[in-house]
Design brief:
Blueprint (H helix, E strand, L loop, with lengths): L2 E2 L7 H15 L11 E6 L5 H12 L3 E3 L14 H10 L4 E6 L15 E7 L5 H15 L6 E5 L6 H12 L3 E5 L14 H5 L4 E4 L15 H8 L3 H6 L5 E3 L22 H26 L1
Parallel strand pairs: 1-5, 2-3, 2-4, 4-5, 6-7, 6-8, 8-9
Helix pairs in contact: 1-4, 1-9, 2-9, 4-5, 4-9
């Protein structure tokens, strides 16, 4: 089975190939996905950007897209994810994009099903397509990431985006800094001062505070978080010349980012969303062409 489940599966050469191909597609290069293929997007967690971005990418490369609603599927009757995937395989689906709250949800059926499986996010584990579109956005700005300082700020413990980006950016030679409340530090070596980081970073990547994954009790308010770890106008003005601001979204305005900073000149937040379509087109093309060539 051809699958993209973690960013660790990709070599540096494959990463650079996908970024190059996504940029070509953005510039108008025609898609090379074989005709007549069918996709289904199995999202068991809420999503706007990833789900709709994949749907747009699938339409743009010529895939037929079967609708899937987890709340009206047989999952509500206790059907396992494996059996759902096998059902869609049986009716002829060629590629499955899956988001699921369980880490490594794909492990039980890797190698047992025919459709290409693309991970749209698993629990707090991995989000490979997000990290690839993030790197595409950075490389549009800098071309090379070797020696660039990238600071990731926020809810590290619960962030699959952070984990995927750390591996990917390290492969590309970036220097990584982390800023977070200590209780959300997880395995990351953190700085405690965002003010220190903004002055030296080429990229500030903010993470969403994932309220839905937290206990009811936490040691600070939203206002206190914003004062210490949020990006505001004062911190924006301290960013180095040519530095950019990113966020995988959705963002909590007034928590990790001030309202008037979201669309600041150095913000690439909405460009990330645009790039998500082209990167996902490149991923679909890569894995579906590979699948057809192996048959």
């Amino acid at each position: 089975m051809r699958a993209l489940t973690t960013i660790e599966e990709l070599t540096k050469e494959q990463i650079l190939h996908l970024v190059k191909r996504a940029r070509q597609l953005k510039a108008g290069s025609p898609s090379q996905v074989p005709p007549g293929l069918v996709a289904a997007n199995l999202f068991f967690e809420p999503s706007t950007r990833t789900k709709m971005s994949f749907e747009m990418a699938e339409h743009k490369v010529g895939l037929k897209v079967l609708p899937f609603d987890a709340e009206s599927s047989s999952a509500t009757k206790g059907e396992s994810l494996y059996d759902t995937v096998k059902t869609l395989e049986a009716i002829g689906v060629d590629v499955l994009v899956i988001r699921h709250p369980e880490n490594a949800y794909y492990a039980p059926f890797l190698g047992k099903v025919k459709p290409v499986v693309i991970n749209g996010g698993d629990g707090t584990g991995n989000h490979p397509t997000q990290s690839l579109l993030d790197v595409m956005t950075m490389m549009e700005e800098f071309e090379e990431l070797e020696g660039k300082t990238i600071t990731i700020v926020g809810d590290l413990a619960h962030s699959r985006v952070a984990r995927s980006n750390v591996h990917l950016l390290s492969q590309l030679g970036a220097d990584l800094l982390f800023v977070s409340p200590p209780e959300w530090q997880a395995e990351f070596p953190i700085l405690y001062s965002l003010d220190e980081a903004v002055a030296t970073s080429d990229v500030i990547m903010l993470l969403r505070v994932q309220h839905e994954r937290h206990d009811a009790q936490q040691s600070f308010t939203k206002e206190e978080y914003h004062a210490r770890y949020g990006m505001n106008t004062a911190r924006l003005e301290q960013m180095k010349q040519g530095a950019i601001l990113m966020h995988p979204a959705p963002f909590n305005r007034g928590v990790e980012i001030a309202d008037d900073v979201v669309e600041a000149p150095c913000s690439r937040i909405f460009e990330q969303m645009k790039n998500g379509v082209y990167m996902r087109m490149a991923i679909l093309e890569h894995y579906l062409k590979e699948e057809m060539e192996c048959e």
